[in-house]
């Protein structure tokens, strides 16, 4: 996989159709059945598995981006961990680390400080389609001819994306610390073997990232 430093072509390419969706969230109560079953059932239960977030498909480091309000130093390291498709959705997992020896050890930098927008974009170049995160309000492309309504709908969508962390001002990436980031998007049509991944607007592009499907196999 080869990195690209420029991302604007991906975001502005008129030949790409952007696919996204809006979906509501739900909650489930957990633990009730296990508690009622008693200690014998707990002892016999499958303990399950967990994976450590250390997988790296590709990694890039760049000078810390920043807006006009903050002149951040050092560099950020972006690690693409996985592109996983299951049940009609794509989960992109990646990590961001900020390192600035000139800043205090307890310093932090927000999405806003780094002039980044946490809009993860997955592009299927062969299929000429780009996919952005689901949102719970608004829409990426509102079905309206009113440009103002369309802009408002997209703003609401950006503020309710299924991206974590999403908060753009209060949340801070710690100096010399790594934060895991995830985004949930529509699954690409046609099950492409590889896609291009833009972790966030303002960060480098990762090309030809291998897609892993629910059966655990790459196409």
Structure description:
The protein has 219 residues and is α+β, with helices and mostly antiparallel strands. The chain has a domain at 58-128 and 163-213: Immunoglobulin-like, CATH 2.60.40. Helices cover 14% and strands 32% of the residues. It contains 4 helices and 14 strands. The strands form 3 sheets. It has a 6-stranded mixed sheet with strand order 1-13-12-7-8-2, with no helix packed on it. Strands 3, 4, 5, 9, 11 and 14 form a 6-stranded mixed sheet that branches. A two-stranded antiparallel ribbon has the order 6-10. It is globular and about 45 Å long.
Topology:
Elements: E1 3-4, H1 8-12, E2 17-19, H2 32-37, H3 39-44, E3 58-63, E4 75-86, E5 89-99, E6 108-109, E7 121-124, E8 129-131, H4 147-159, E9 163-164, E10 173-174, E11 177-186, E12 194-198, E13 205-210, E14 212-213
Parallel strand pairs: 2-8, 4-14
Antiparallel strand pairs: 1-13, 3-4, 4-5, 5-11, 6-10, 7-8, 7-12, 9-11, 12-13
Q: Runs with pLDDT <50, length 5+?
A: 2-17, 23-45
User: What's the number of helices?
Assistant: 4
What is the fold-level CATH name, i.e. the topology of the domain at 58-128 and 163-213?
Immunoglobulin-like
Mean pLDDT equals: 81
* Principal-axes shape call: globular
Keywords: Signal
Signal peptide: 1-24
Which structural traits does this protein have?
single chain, 219 residues, alpha+beta, Immunoglobulin-like, 6-stranded mixed β-sheet, globular, disordered N terminus
Summarize the structure.
With 219 residues, the chain is α+β, with helices and mostly antiparallel strands. Helices cover 14% and strands 32% of the residues. The strands form 3 sheets. It has a 6-stranded mixed beta sheet with strand order 1-13-12-7-8-2, with no helix packed on it.
């Amino acid at each position: 996989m080869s990195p690209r430093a420029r991302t604007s072509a991906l975001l502005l390419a008129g030949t790409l159709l952007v696919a996204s969706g809006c979906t509501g969230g739900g909650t489930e109560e957990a633990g009730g059945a296990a508690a009622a079953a008693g200690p014998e059932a707990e002892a016999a239960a499958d303990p399950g598995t967990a994976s450590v977030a250390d997988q790296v498909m590709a990694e890039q480091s760049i000078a810390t981006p920043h807006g006009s309000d903050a002149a951040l130093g050092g560099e950020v390291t972006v690690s693409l961990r996985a592109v996983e498709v299951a049940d009609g959705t794509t989960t992109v997992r990646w990590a961001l680390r900020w390192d600035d020896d000139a800043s205090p050890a307890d310093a932090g930098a927000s999405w806003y400080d780094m002039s980044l927008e946490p809009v993860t974009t997955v592009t299927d170049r062969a299929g000429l389609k780009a996919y952005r995160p689901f949102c719970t309000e608004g829409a990426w492309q509102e079905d309206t001819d009113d440009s103002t309504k369309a802009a408002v709908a997209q703003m609401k969508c950006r503020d309710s994306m299924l991206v974590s962390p999403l908060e753009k001002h209060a949340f801070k990436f710690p100096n010399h610390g790594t934060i895991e980031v995830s985004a949930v998007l529509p699954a690409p049509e046609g099950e492409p073997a590889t896609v291009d991944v833009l972790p966030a607007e303002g960060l480098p592009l990762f090309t030809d990232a291998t897609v892993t499907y629910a059966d655990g196999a790459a196409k």
